[in-house]
Each structure stands twice: as C-alpha cells, then as structure tokens.
Amino acid sequence: MSDIKELEENEVGQVVELVDDRAPSDDEMDEDVDVSEQVEEEQIVLDLSNNSWTYLEHGDSVFVVERHPKLPLVVSGSADHTAKLWTTHKQPPVVVTTIDHKESVITAKFTADGNYVITADMAGLLQVHRTKNGEKWTKVGDVEEVEEIHWIATHPSQNYFAFGANDGSVWVYQIEGNDLTQLMTGFSHTLDCNAGVFLEDEETIQLVTASDDATVVCWNAITGQPIYKLAPIDFKGIESPWVVLSAQGHMVAVGGRDGQLAIINHQTHKVVNTLQVINNDDHDSLSIEALAWCESMPLLAVGVVHGDVFLFETQQWRLRKSWSTEAHEDYENAITQLQFEPKSHVLVGSSTNGKVYRWDARSGTEMFVGVGHNMPVFDFAIMDDGKLITAGDEGVCLVFNPREQATQSQ
C-alpha cells in the first residue's frame, strides 16, 4: 500500500463537526458565559484547562484507540457499538469509516501492512475490513465463535491475527485477500484468556497467551499445538491470575492481578525471575495493568491500579525508579496503559485520573501532562508526528500535540 501523507476531505467520508477548542483569550475569559448551556448544547464535558489540539466525539465511552502503521489514521472503539476510523493530522478530524457492532467495541488492531483492520466487541463479534489506500474500507468477513472477546493481537510482519475469549479459548486466523482462514483453536486455558502477543520468530508463527487460571502458554499458531505451558509450579508456586503480557526479543513479561511480575525466557521456556511489584493490604489495588519495554535502554515499565509506575532495569531486575500519578477528586489514579515512544527513553502513560503523561524514564521527570478529560482515559496511541490520541470514558478522543506545545514554550 502506498503511503498517503495527506488524506483530503473530499477523499473520505463524514466530517465531524467540532467546536472551537482553541485556548480562550483574556477578553473571552472575562465574558459572562453560561458554561452549563454550552455543555448541554455540545453534549460533551471537557476540562476547562483542556490543552488538547482537537478532538473526536463518540456517543459513549471510548475503550480503545489504535494507530495505523503508515498513515495519520486511527481506529477507536466505543460503547456506542461502533468503531470509527479517522484522521489525526488536520483540524477537525475526518471520519473515514464507521463500523457498526452489536455491543461495546473493546479491542481493535491493524495488520502490519495497514491493509486490514480487525475490531471486536463484548458480544463476541469480530469484523475484518480492508483498504487499498486508507480512503475506503470494505468488509472482508466476520467471526462469531465465542461469547466475549478480550483481546486481539496481530502478527508483527504477516497477515495473521489472534484473539482470546472469556472461556479461555485462543483463536488464530490468516487473512489472504478477501478470505479469512482459521488456523487454530486452543483450549489449554480453563479460565478467561486475558492477553496474547505474537513473537517475532523467523521459522514459525508463535503466540504467547496468559490466563486467569495462572498459566502461560506458547502456541504454534499454525498447528495449534502448545510449544510449552507454564503453570504455578514453574512460577515458584505462585498462583497469579495473569492479566497483561508484553514481549521484547526473547523475553516475555507477564503481570498479575495480585501485583506479581514474571519474566520468561522464550528461548529456554523457563521463568527467569518473579517479583512482587507492590505490597498493599488492599488487594484490589495491586493489579498490574500495563507493561512496556524500552527499545533504547534496558528498562521495563510497570503500571498498577494503585496509580504507581515502576521502572525495572532488565539486566539484574532491580527497581530503578518509581513514581505515582495524582488522584482525581471523583476517580482513582490507576494506570491504564504504558508505552515507550519508538527508540526513545520517553515513556507515555494514561490514567483513570483523566490525564495522559510523558515522562523521561532516565529520571522519572514529568515532561508533559495532557488534560481535558474529566473521566478516565482507557487507552492512547502515539503517532509518528508525536501526537497522542486518547480514549476517554466520557465518549471523547482527544488529540494532544506535545511537541508543538514544547516548541511554543521555548
């Protein structure tokens, strides 16, 4: 697919009407404005200290936002039973396609070439759409095999995708043109399959999955046979409900609801380390919600429900830094997502306190705080131009431009 640097309005579908979200002047701030009337008219409530660049509105909570690998385009999934594909490089955004679902859209992924987008909802409906140039998306097919889908993973280089379900099952499909081919179904997990990731392996297509039943399984995604399965006995007797998974090279990190972190050497199939990231009498605050590997430094970032971020150096697995996010007056400050900017020491994180952050992982210094949401931020995407796209509980995706703001402040 050819790269498209500019997606013009006349090339795509619906244009979303947005209000002027520029910062008000001093004169405007002095005017007697009835904020409640504005909110009622716009049907959206944004933080008055909003420093976002622009935004796009859904009809209900937005749970996921995923970036296109080549274009200034994202897909967002919402409780309004839709997934929207929309542009991020212009004000206002342009909605290219709206995909209708049966229930809340909670997960979405693009294939590595950007030619396909896969979306799934809480009713177990998964849909695949195809494009040739990013401008028009047509349906390839759908899959409806399980009661509820928890996650989707796409292969880092080939057109394979996988998903995990509430019954513990794992499914892998291949996309060829307009055809979906089921490659495997795995039933090794006995409880919810909460996370999965494809590994970069030149010889085989391998997928690692994690479950509430305290097991981690590596699958041959072509044959459906487990390559190895790790149970509590392999984790030094720790029986942790695993909820999040991340891989880099031959190392796999898995995090549990009880604050346990385990590191697996994929080459040896062995658990090389287990850590209790946080200790707290309030067990509900222990859950590890996000993991992120740094490409430029030997670091793994861990985010927990309690609102803390921990940075571990990955050679000796010692804690290097930790910090906490501030709590919202109405919401907790749980970390919902973490991601390092590509080949950078800059860590981006989102929280239920309604903010998105950029930190310098070398020092833990706060570099940028994106404000504007008045409810939790569930997800975000990092664009090539540095923009941050957020998914908010109030039904809004905000677009932040930290680099532009940094330039203006100099």
Automatic annotation (TrEMBL):
<feature type="region of interest" description="Disordered">
    <location>
        <begin position="1"/>
        <end position="29"/>
    </location>
</feature>
<keyword id="KW-0677">Repeat</keyword>
<dbReference type="Pfam" id="PF12894">
    <property type="entry name" value="ANAPC4_WD40"/>
</dbReference>
<protein>
    <recommendedName>
        <fullName>Anaphase-promoting complex subunit 4-like WD40 domain-containing protein</fullName>
    </recommendedName>
</protein>
<dbReference type="InterPro" id="IPR051179">
    <property type="entry name" value="WD_repeat_multifunction"/>
</dbReference>
<feature type="domain" description="Anaphase-promoting complex subunit 4-like WD40">
    <location>
        <begin position="291"/>
        <end position="366"/>
    </location>
</feature>
<feature type="repeat" description="WD">
    <location>
        <begin position="55"/>
        <end position="86"/>
    </location>
</feature>
<dbReference type="InterPro" id="IPR015943">
    <property type="entry name" value="WD40/YVTN_repeat-like_dom_sf"/>
</dbReference>
<dbReference type="InterPro" id="IPR001680">
    <property type="entry name" value="WD40_rpt"/>
</dbReference>
<dbReference type="InterPro" id="IPR036322">
    <property type="entry name" value="WD40_repeat_dom_sf"/>
</dbReference>
<dbReference type="InterPro" id="IPR024977">
    <property type="entry name" value="Apc4-like_WD40_dom"/>
</dbReference>
<keyword id="KW-0853">WD repeat</keyword>
<feature type="repeat" description="WD">
    <location>
        <begin position="328"/>
        <end position="369"/>
    </location>
</feature>
<dbReference type="Pfam" id="PF00400">
    <property type="entry name" value="WD40"/>
</dbReference>
